[in-house]
Amino acid sequence: MKLSAQEEYGLRCLLQMATRGESSSLSIPEISRAEGLSVPNVAKLMRILRLGGFVHSVRGQAGGYTLARPATDITVVSVLEVLGGRLYGPRFCDRHSGLQSSCSHIGDCGLRTLWSALQTAIESVLGKMTLQDLIRDEKSMGEWMSSRGGNPILVNAIQSADVH
Q1: What radius of gyration do the chain's Cα atoms show?
Q2: Topology given in CATH for the domain delimited by 5-67
Q3: Cα separation of 148 and 61, whole Å?
C-alpha cells in the first residue's frame, strides 16, 4: 500500500501554510519553491484543497493562500480523503468486481473484513492527528505519539524510520 503523490504533496503544501501561521499568506510560486514541486502541480493541489474547504485564496499582488481554519482543526484523515479518497468505502466492492457486474465474493468475504478494519484503524490514528500535530521533527513526533499512547507499531516505525 502506498499514498499517492497527490496526497503526500497536498499535505506538504498545507504544512507549509501551517508552519507560517494562520495570518500568513503564500503564493503558488512560493509553495512550489519551498516544496520543490512544479507550479502547475501546486496550482492543481491548491485548487483541490480550496474546493475541499482547507484553504482560502486571495487574488492580487498581496494575494495567495491561507488556511481556511486553524491547523488544530484540520485532521490528516480529512485532507487525505479530499486528495485521494478513502482506502475502503461502501462502494469498494462495486469497483473491484473483476469481469462480473458484482464481486463473486459479495456474500462472504474475508478481504472485506480486513479492508474495513484497516480503514477503521486509519481513521482512528489519522482522525485524531491534525496539521498542528505534524509540525514537529521526526524525533519529537515519535515521542509525542508515545506520550499519547499511540499505536506501538506505528510509534516504533516512526522512531526507527530510515529517512534519507
Answers
A1: 18
A2: Arc Repressor Mutant, subunit A (1.10.10)
A3: 43
**Total length of the chain:** 164
Residues 6+ apart with CB under 8 A from 98: 104
pLDDT digits (tens, 9 = 90+) for 57-102: 988 777 799 999 999 999 999 999 999 887 777 667 666 666 677 6
- Angle between the N-to-C axes of helices 138-147 and 152-159, in degrees from 0 to 180, rounded to the nearest 10: 160
Report field, pTM of the whole predicted structure over 0.85: no
Q: What percent of the chain has pLDDT above 90?
A: 43
Task: Give DSSP secondary structure letters for 142-160.
Answer: HHHHHHTT--HHHHHHHHT
Q: Where are the domains of the chain?
A: 5-67, 87-128, 130-164
Residue with cell 481554519: 69
136 has pLDDT over 90: no
